[in-house]
Amino acid sequence: MQFIDIVFYSFIVVVCIQTVFYLGIFSKFAFEKIKHKKAKTIPVSVIICAKNEAENLQNFLPSILEQDYPNFEVILINDSSRDHTLDVMEQFEKQYNNIKIVNVRNIEAFWANKKYALTLGIKAAKNNTLLFTDADCKPVSNKWISDMSSHFSHTKTIVIGYGAYKRIKGSFLNMLIRFETLLTATQYFSYASLGMPYMAVGRNLAYRSETFYDARGFMNHIDINSGDDDLFINEIATGKNTAICVTKTSFTESLPKTTFKDWVLQKRRHISTAHRYKLKHKILLSTFYASQFLFWGLAIALLLTTFNWPIVLSLVLFRFLLLYLILGKTSKKLNEKGLLAILPILELFLISMQMVIFIKNLISKPHHWK
């Protein structure tokens, strides 16, 4: 058997693997009916950890404080900010009686560690149900708390929500960021729907305080600056205790990075936690990424040599048909617009950037969360 034959048959195997992922796993969430739960009135503590976020708090905090929900408090954590973050928090505290400020000062043992600051905020919360978001986020509606809290039950103690990024017209970087967010959400929502939750995003996440304390908080990964959301969920989430909330009024929207340098730094922090995931999750995620990477590499090589090109081209078209079908349904469900037109370009660019980021993280590790 010649080398080109090995490449050809390898390509067929890769397309089969991609088919299993898209039809066998991702289609579960894509075609699943959105579940609307009856509203509850359980007391909720919304927790926001802010570091140098004075302007963002000024802009976005009102959308949280004006939520249509009868019983909630807002825990504002000032994580050793160098700007006027604390001043802004105190201004809002004078206007609203449901705000509690936790002012965190750096200590040597937990220098610039977000998990330490979050832990202090969680301990200050008076309510058992904790709902997390970021200072540069805003809920897309005043039903955010209501929607997220409605998914709690006697058995469901974790609720995973969707955190979108604001759309910026005419920006390729913005489309890339939103595509990566969509693809990542497709994976973690799909696995959660199948009873295998493995991560969540801190921009929109809720869990009960006893769940936090039963797991000893963040102690099992306190040595890593990132991971207060994905590593924590990877450690404690199961098919029995985890629910997903994807009603469109439950989403949050964050400010995206506007330069490739800042985005790469952000993704380096995010990816740096993956090596601490459970083995089964690392295998699944690595296999999916490898099959994506090999699909492009092998497809380009085979098409350039024109080896069995009708079969190769047919498999390429079939695979992209799957992408457009599954990601099209998911993007509609998550209200992500304007991405499908250049989906192949976005995917190829994202795969290339992920490889660059992976190599950068092998050479040096990102340190502080901000």
Number of strands: 10
Averaged pLDDT, please?
93
Provide the domain count.
2
Q: What's the CATH H-level superfamily name of the largest domain?
A: Spore Coat Polysaccharide Biosynthesis Protein SpsA, Chain A
Taking the sheet with the most strands, its summary is:
7 strands, mixed
Spans with pLDDT under 50 lasting ≥5 residues? none
- Class from helix and strand fractions: alpha/beta
Spatial sequence of strands, sheet with the most strands: 3-2-1-4-8-6-9
The radius of gyration over CA amounts to 22 Å
Helix amount: 40-55%
At CATH level 3, the topology of the largest domain is Spore Coat Polysaccharide Biosynthesis Protein SpsA, Chain A
Fraction in beta strands: 5-15%
Helix-strand topology string: HEHEHEHEEHEEHEHHEEHHHH
Helix count, per DSSP? 12
CATH architecture identity of the largest domain:
Alpha-Beta Complex
Termini gap: 54 Å
What is the CATH first-level class name of the largest domain? Answer: Alpha Beta
Task: Report on this structure.
GO terms for molecular function: glycosyltransferase activity. Keywords: Glycosyltransferase, Membrane, Transferase, Transmembrane, Transmembrane helix. It is an enzyme of class 2 (transferase). The chain is α/β, with parallel strands linked by helices and 370 residues long. It has 2 domains: 3-30 and 279-359, no CATH class; 44-257, Spore Coat Polysaccharide Biosynthesis Protein SpsA, Chain A (Alpha-Beta Complex), CATH 3.90.550.10. 51% of the residues lie in helices and 12% in strands. The strands form 2 sheets. A 7-stranded mixed beta sheet has the order 3-2-1-4-8-6-9, with helices on both faces. The protein is elongated, with a radius of gyration of 22 Å. The model has no long low-confidence stretch (mean pLDDT 93).
